[in-house]
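Let's sit down with a protein and look at its sequence and fold side by side. Once you have written the record down, we can walk along the chain together.
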Amino acid sequence: MEILAFGVTADEKPLLEQAFAGQHEVRCLDVFLDEDTAPIAAGYEIVSSSVNADLNGRVLRVLAAGGTKLISQRSTGFNNIDLDEARRLGLAISRVSAYSPYSVAEFAWALAMAVNRRIVRASIRTRDFDFRLNGLMGRDFHGRTAGVLGTGKIGEAFTRIAHGFGMRLLGWDVVQNPACLELGMTYVDKDELLASSDLVSLHVPLLESTRRIVDAAALRRMRDDAILVNSSRGGLIDTDALVDELRAGRFTGVGLDVYEAEAGVFFLDKSLEAVEDDTLARLVTFPNVVVTSHQAYYTADAVGQIIATTVANVADHLAGRRSENTLVPPP
């Protein structure tokens, strides 16, 4: 059987081909699965999509009409998939329920360190042989307070690193994580966490209940000199409200690996095009902001685990099995 994989990076392609070798052929495309590209999948029973796929009802109907039976998404989040429509169409959907939490947690810390110590600005200066220290002063994280919104596997990994820095630990989640409690974390309500933390890092999934969980009111509760990091989903932050706060001179730094309107922008080369997103264009101009293109998960370890799970999901589908990765079972 030949599997069609959308949104495959150059680094990912040989890993996918090697993982499926001896079992199935895999055709790798670098384009993302959306309304424009869905017709390409006609005749493919199994399609694999990437993190930025737009699997709305219209896309799913095109896939189903073309004979697709399984969509195996190579990511954890599924807020981009119309699951109700998939069930109606009889389309099976699987995902990668877990992969290396350290990849995202370590990258979140890379963002925190970069904005705190002005790493990007310093690097740009030294390339111009400007070795002055003016404007590069950061702060010790040791002894300060880390607020972790979402203390699942990634939030726990982030917390362990914060503990290593010698930080006071505050957490917020619907369920308390015993491992975080053992590290000395105190669970508080969201408002107290935002008001008391020097560093706030987001590690919750994007659900209707968490959409724009950091809105204008939440941003106003944060300290003027706080650091905000988001390596989860862009929709957790009201970006327009964030820009307003940054324009007012607030926050020591903001590190964003995700953006709420990233679809159709992230993972693509837009360097020769006019910037149509005024909010994103404004956001990247602030000297205390670092924006990266949804790369926190992108380590050899994590991608290898994602691909291995995708191979297992395909095998489970063909054998009629369900697993913790099954979002919509076959009819």
About this structure: The mean pLDDT is 96. DSSP finds twelve helices and 13 strands in the chain.
